[in-house]
Design goal:
about 280 residues, mainly alpha, globular
Length: about 280
């Protein structure tokens, strides 16, 4: 009974602060910013990869980004993304690609603002420090995607060599498609850990951010499944928005994911407040 009371208290506190902190508006801001940052990030990453000789990067990057989206949402968007990314670009050091990196970092800044509000911390770091950190996130993500791209290119060869020497591994190796899903999920988990630890002001222990990360992952799975079911059976986006339907669907999906992400931060903060309040109560 005591645990149920504590759970209710934490959840009510998290939802109350989410509403008080303009969580619904912040979710809209985060969704739109994420969509605006997605294309610049992929353009920058693909241009850098092409400059380094990784010509197969575009398709791999699209898989890593969209494999965890419901198919109804990912398919039309990913097709357009591939069309954009397969345009030949030789302007790595031009202002266009540098601006793409800058606009991509705006998505990181939106995450920072959302988490600062959720954790109720005041930002004291300088603009230069924050923007440099955001750009570093973009470069690290690009490098990680590039490494994964090279790994997936060589994966079939690695699998064949492994099976030739260790036949007992066959049931465990699976397919490249399976490994794409595993890698994409791992990227999401590592990304959530990174943004909760380093983006907001102040310091948090790893154990303090685990509940929110788990909530975000479970909420992403449940929310995307329910939204995909809605699109299959009840949606009228195509008749309402015509050619803009795929963009509107992506915006709504990102809004749902953004709200869940912010709620994850609010949940972490609520749990911390609960334990702090308990610590102040005389034993």
């Amino acid at each position: 009974m005591r645990r149920i009371v504590a759970l209710k208290r934490v959840l009510y506190d998290a939802l109350g602060h989410f509403n008080y902190d303009d969580g619904w508006s912040m979710a809209s801001h985060l969704a739109i910013t994420a969509l605006m940052a997605l294309f610049p990030f992929l353009i920058f990453a693909t241009t850098l990869a092409s400059f380094l000789g990784a010509s197969a990067f575009a398709e791999t990057a699209v898989h890593l980004v969209f494999d965890t989206w419901p198919a109804q949402i990912a398919a039309p968007i990913s097709r357009e993304v591939i069309n954009v990314l397969t345009v030949q670009r030789t302007d790595l050091l031009t202002y266009g690609v540098l601006l793409a990196a800058f606009f991509a970092s705006n998505g990181i800044e939106a995450l920072r603002t959302s988490l600062n509000r959720a954790y109720r911390v005041a930002e004291t770091r300088s603009f230069f420090y924050r923007r440099t950190q955001s750009l570093a996130f973009v470069f690290v993500a690009t490098t990680g995607f590039l490494a994964i791209s090279l790994l997936l290119v060589f994966a079939p060869l690695i699998v064949r060599l492994a099976l030739a020497n260790f036949e007992w591994l066959e049931p465990y190796l699976g397919t490249i498609t399976l490994w794409r899903y595993v890698i994409a999920s791992t990227v999401i988990v590592l990304g959530l850990i990174a943004v909760h630890v380093w983006l907001p002001a102040g310091k948090r222990r790893f154990v303090d951010i685990v509940p929110g990360i788990i909530f975000t992952l479970v909420g992403w799975l449940v929310g995307s499944t329910m939204f995909a079911t809605y699109l299959d059976h009840f949606s009228s986006y195509v008749t309402t928005y015509a050619g803009l339907a795929s963009i509107m669907i992506a915006v709504v999906f990102l809004y749902i994911v953004s709200a869940i992400f912010i709620l994850g931060g609010e949940l972490n903060a609520s749990i911390s407040r609960y334990f702090e309040a308990r610590a102040r109560v005389p034993g």
